[in-house]
């Protein structure tokens, strides 16, 4: 598989202000931990009523280096309100250097017709509602976040100074890679997310560097702990890809091992 050029271009550090969307657990939480370890100022979003015990411990440890923000990507008003709340906390534009969009769901696996096919056991047939529920989070969510938070990115002075919008998707959404079928809602939502990201890349080419990340098959709650790698390995690899991105980087889809994913 073709490799990405991961020459460091935009090192993360004390001058970085990073919004991590979907950070209560798993990959998102690991992003927060590793970014804080790099001395970044991190804005971490959570969906529920409270950010969770681990996030609260990080807040107690890092203080003003970690801002917690309630945001539900399914709710257009929640996304817009979160952006306004962030502006209020910074008394103006926070001039974010990075947005990492991690929020996503797998949803019901959903078979074609409920019958066993392609070596898989029988499962309930996919429904319109189950498809739309997953699309709402995985496809529409990144667009809503971009609409509200791209205006809060810093203004670049040169291509090497571009803020970065990194959207986590999945190789399951690759048309070329789909050799097993099934997973209708998740596959379709991630494939659609990819084209949303490409449009953002084109529309924002004078404002931000946009690209896609595949985290790998990670041991998280979403995979019921059945992944092949741990979150720390995945995130450290994705951070290298982020640091290898600037305004001169072409649109690409890269995994945590620096492999380019086929569309």
Supply database-style keywords.
single chain, 263 residues, alpha/beta, Rossmann fold, 7-stranded parallel beta sheet, 6 helices, 13% strand, globular, NAD(P)-bd_dom_sf
Describe what is shown at a glance.
This protein is α/β, with parallel strands linked by helices. It has helices at residues 26-37, 53-62, 76-89, 128-149, 184-203, 231-243; strands at 17-21, 41-46, 66-70, 98-101, 164-168, 209-214, 253-255. A seven-stranded parallel sheet has the order 3-2-1-4-5-6-7, sandwiched between helices.
Map the helices and strands:
Elements: E1 17-21, H1 26-37, E2 41-46, H2 53-62, E3 66-70, H3 76-89, E4 98-101, H4 128-149, E5 164-168, H5 184-203, E6 209-214, H6 231-243, E7 253-255
Organism: Guillardia theta (strain CCMP2712) (Cryptophyte)
Protein name: NAD(P)-binding protein
Pfam family, one: adh_short
Describe the structure in your own words.
- The protein has 6 helices and 7 strands.
- It has 263 residues and is α/β, with parallel strands linked by helices.
- It has a single domain (17-255), classed as Rossmann fold (3-Layer(aba) Sandwich).
- It has a 7-stranded parallel beta sheet with strand order 3-2-1-4-5-6-7, with helices on both faces.
- α4 runs parallel beside α5.
- It is globular, with a radius of gyration of 18 Å.
- It comes from Guillardia theta (strain CCMP2712).
Residue-averaged pLDDT: 93
Q: What's the count of strands?
A: 7
Main sheet characteristics: 7 strands, parallel
Question: Radius of gyration, Cα only, in angstroms?
Answer: 18 Å
Number of helices in the DSSP assignment: 6
Strand content: 5-15%
Overall geometry comes to globular
What is the CATH homologous superfamily assignment? NAD(P)-binding Rossmann-like Domain
Q: Class, according to the CATH hierarchy?
A: Alpha Beta
Structural classification: alpha/beta
Side by side, the strands of the main sheet go 3-2-1-4-5-6-7
* SSE run: EHEHEHEHEHEHE
Unreliable segments of 5+ consecutive residues: none
């Amino acid at each position: 598989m073709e490799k990405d050029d991961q020459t460091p271009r935009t090192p993360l550090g004390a001058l970085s202000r990073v919004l991590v969307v979907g950070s209560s657990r798993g990959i998102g939480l690991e992003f927060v931990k590793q970014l804080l370890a790099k001395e970044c100022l991190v804005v971490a979003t959570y969906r529920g009523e409270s950010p969770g015990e681990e996030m609260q411990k990080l807040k107690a440890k890092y203080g003003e280096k970690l801002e917690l923000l309630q945001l539900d990507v399914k709710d257009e008003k929640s996304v817009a309100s979160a952006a306004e709340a962030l502006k209020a906390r910074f008394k103006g534009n926070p001039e974010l250097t990075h947005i990492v969009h991690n929020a996503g769901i797998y949803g019901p696996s959903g078979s074609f017709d409920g019958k066993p096919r392609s070596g898989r056991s029988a499962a309930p047939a996919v429904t319109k509602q189950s498809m739309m529920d997953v699309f709402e989070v995985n496809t529409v969510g990144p667009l809503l976040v971009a609409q509200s938070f791209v205006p809060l990115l810093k203004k670049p002075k040169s291509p090497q100074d571009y803020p970065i919008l990194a959207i986590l998707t999945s190789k399951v959404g690759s048309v070329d890679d789909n050799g097993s079928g099934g997973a209708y809602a998740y596959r379709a939502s991630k494939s659609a997310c990819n084209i949303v990201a490409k449009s953002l890349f084109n529309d924002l080419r004078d404002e931000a560097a946009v690209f896609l990340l595949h985290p790998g098959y990670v041991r998280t709650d979403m995979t019921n702990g059945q992944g092949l790698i741990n979150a720390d390995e995945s995130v450290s690899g994705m951070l290298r890809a982020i640091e290898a991105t600037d305004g001169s980087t072409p649109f690409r889809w890269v995994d945590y091992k620096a492999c380019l994913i086929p569309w």
